[in-house]
């Protein structure tokens, strides 16, 4: 049973527009959420994170929004650039007794077209 | 500052064999975690090592085992390989207590025939 779900396997966006990647989770005990970006033949690279006590975190072109009541978070990329094309993973952590265990979604492949 | 490195890059084994994968943690990091990423899936936590001791384990059978050395590098050993063990194996390191700041290596692609 998946605890972190990314229901869109792929997303295509025009350069300069906004990319919105979504993630849902089932366990209300998660206290930290992260987004990783992965290029082919490379390991995941940390992008941005948010604590469960916040509802928004912004870093340059990247903003993560957390809606705890809906158990939903989203990553906004504005403006999207061709170099943003990659697989984006949502991850959650913080379950008691499972420190360090990041639970990942299946990923969303973002394609940004020039 | 040296990042997380893994070896080998690719590996082909046959069912029933044993394999050892290696990971060097990022400079200053003393905690290493291993993940398995099957095709089309997200990484799945195997286990974590801190100060040479296993510090948490995911839902993987005992034939998946590991070691951490005094220099914080780590090995993942898999015995009695099965076809479903074919995957990308990722190593991640972090400094003590900073579990949410895990830095990943490029992975080892294991193919079991």
What labels would you give this structure?
heterodimer; A: 114 residues; mainly beta; 6-stranded mixed sheet; 5-stranded antiparallel sheet; 11 strands; B: 113 residues; 7-stranded mixed sheet; 4-stranded antiparallel sheet; globular
Outline of the structure:
Chain A is mainly β and 114 residues long.
Polypeptide structure, described:
- The complex is a heterodimer of chains A (114) and B (113).
- Chain A has strands at 4-5, 10-14, 19-25, 32-38, 45-51, 56-59, 62-67, 72-77, 86-93, 103-104, 108-113.
- Chain A is mostly beta strands.
- In chain A, strands 2, 4, 5, 9, 10 and 11 form a six-stranded mixed sheet that branches. A five-stranded antiparallel sheet of chain A has the order 1-3-8-7-6, with no helix packed on it.
- The model of chain A has no long low-confidence stretch (mean pLDDT 93).
- Chain B is mostly beta strands.
- In chain B, 0% of the residues lie in helices and 50% in strands.
- Classes of the chains: A mainly beta (114), B mainly beta (113).
Q: Can you lay out the helices and strands and say which pair or pack?
A:
The complex is a heterodimer of chains A (114) and B (113).
Chain A: E1 4-5, E2 10-14, E3 19-25, E4 32-38, E5 45-51, E6 56-59, E7 62-67, E8 72-77, E9 86-93, E10 103-104, E11 108-113
Parallel strand pairs in A: 2-11
Antiparallel strand pairs in A: 1-3, 3-8, 4-5, 4-9, 6-7, 7-8, 9-10, 9-11
Chain B: E1 5-7, E2 10-13, E3 19-24, E4 31-37, E5 44-50, E6 53-57, E7 64-68, E8 74-78, E9 87-94, E10 103-104, E11 108-112
Parallel strand pairs in B: 2-11
Antiparallel strand pairs in B: 1-3, 3-8, 4-5, 4-9, 5-6, 7-8, 9-10, 9-11
Tertiary shape of chain A: globular
The major beta sheet of chain A can be summarized as: 6 strands, mixed
- Helix fraction of chain B, binned, reads under 10%
Show unreliable segments of chain A. none
Structural class label of chain A: mainly beta
Rounded radius of gyration of chain B (Å):
13 Å
Overall average pLDDT of chain A? 93
N to C succession of SSEs of chain A: EEEEEEEEEEE
Count up the helices of chain A: 0
Approximate shape of chain B: globular
Main beta sheet of chain B: 7 strands, mixed
- The termini of chain A sit apart by 38 Å
């Amino acid at each position: 049973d998946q605890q972190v779900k990314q229901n869109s396997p792929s997303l295509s966006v025009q350069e300069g527009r906004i990319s919105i990647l979504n993630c849902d989770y089932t366990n209300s005990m998660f206290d930290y959420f992260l987004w990783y970006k992965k290029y082919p033949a490379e390991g995941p690279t940390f992008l941005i994170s948010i604590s469960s006590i916040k509802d928004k975190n912004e870093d340059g072109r990247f903003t993560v929004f957390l809606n705890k009541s809906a158990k939903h978070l989203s990553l906004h990329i504005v403006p999207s650039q061709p170099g943003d094309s990659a697989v984006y993973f949502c991850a959650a952590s913080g379950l008691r007794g499972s420190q360090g265990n990041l639970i990942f979604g299946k990923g969303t492949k973002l394609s940004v077209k020039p | 500052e040296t990042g997380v490195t893994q070896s080998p890059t690719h590996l082909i084994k046959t069912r029933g064999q044993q394999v050892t994968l290696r990971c060097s943690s990022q400079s200053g990091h003393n905690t290493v975690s291993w993940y398995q990423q099957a095709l089309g899936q997200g990484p799945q936590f195997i286990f974590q090592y801190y100060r040479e001791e296993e510090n948490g384990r995911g839902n993987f059978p005992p034939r998946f085992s590991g070691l951490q050395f005094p220099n914080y590098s780590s090995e993942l050993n898999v015995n009695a390989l099965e076809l479903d063990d074919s995957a990308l194996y990722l190593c991640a390191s972090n400094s003590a207590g900073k579990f949410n700041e895990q830095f990943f290596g490029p992975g080892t692609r294991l193919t079991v025939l």
